[in-house]
Amino acid sequence: MVEILSAEELDKMRAAGKLVAKILIELKKAAVPGVSTQELDDIAQRIIKEAGGSAPCIGYGDPPFPAAICTSINDEVVHGIPSKNIILKDGDIVTCDVVAELDGFCGDAARTYLVGNVSEEKKLLVERTKECFFEGLKQAQIGNRIGDISHAVQEKAESYGYGVVRVLTGHGIGRSMHQEPDVPNFGKPGRGHRIMKGMAFCIEPMINMGTEKVLLCDDEWTVVTADEKPAAHYENTVIITENGPEMTTFEEDM
Ligand code: MF3
Ligand code: CO
User: Fold this and answer.
1) Which protein residues touch ligand 1 with a CB less than 6 Å away?
2) What's the structural domain count of the chain?
3) Whole-number Cα distances in Å, 240 to 30, 76, 147, 167
4) Rounded CA gap, 32 and 28, in Å?
5) Residue 178 maps to which CATH number?
6) pTM for the full predicted model
7) What residues have their beta carbon closer than 5 A to ion ligand 2?
8) Which of 36, 182, 190, 209 registers the highest number of CB atoms within 10 A of its CB?
9) 202-232: pLDDT as tens digits
10) Ligand 1 atom index nearest CA of 97
């Protein structure tokens, strides 16, 4: 079932989204050479605590995810586990994926940050992954279908020769971080759930410089590209209002 949120509930989604945006702004500043991914998680946990929120990722799944955010470096696509032993270095790209719950509702967003001096081809991958998100967002209109978003993301990514990850998708969000419907980053226009006022979902292209194929690491969380080439990720929580799609987790400079 796809949940339709009331005006009051959408306001709570906005508040949760704002908290996620605030965290991502701080993480962007903190993602410099020499910093551990554990320090990034500590920052996120502190801001969530100060706001009176909670971190749904902690303890999620099996084996239970041990942190508040996912930190995925270079060929890690998503779900990297923060660690005091993982230190960012010059030339890395690091994806920070943040979920926060506030007053019963969730926000979820991801950004891939440039650490120090990054190669031109990695920079382009990061910029173009964001572009893929916004192509998808344009299609998030009342009366369209989820497949319209999926198709737009895929077309854009493949126009650059990139691989679109298939095994992971965007998702509905609301009281919990993962709800129906799935929002794939590939597909046919006109297919899938119809987009209606009051829906909330995450659009999150996960785009690989090379092959779309990914592998799961022994920690049972970290997803890496099969060819070890870099990957980027860009995600916002989107709510559908009568004025069109609205990103709850978006602010400038994040
Ligand atoms: N933020 C992720 C998403 O976009 C969810 C991560 S779940 C975790 O769906 F437990 F692995 F953190
Ligand atoms: Co996310």
Assistant:
1) 57, 60-61, 65, 70, 79, 97, 99, 108, 171, 202, 204, 235
2) 1
3) 32, 31, 16, 25
4) 8
5) 3.90.230.10
6) 0.98
7) 97, 108, 110, 235
8) 209
9) 999 999 999 999 999 999 999 999 999 999 9
10) 1
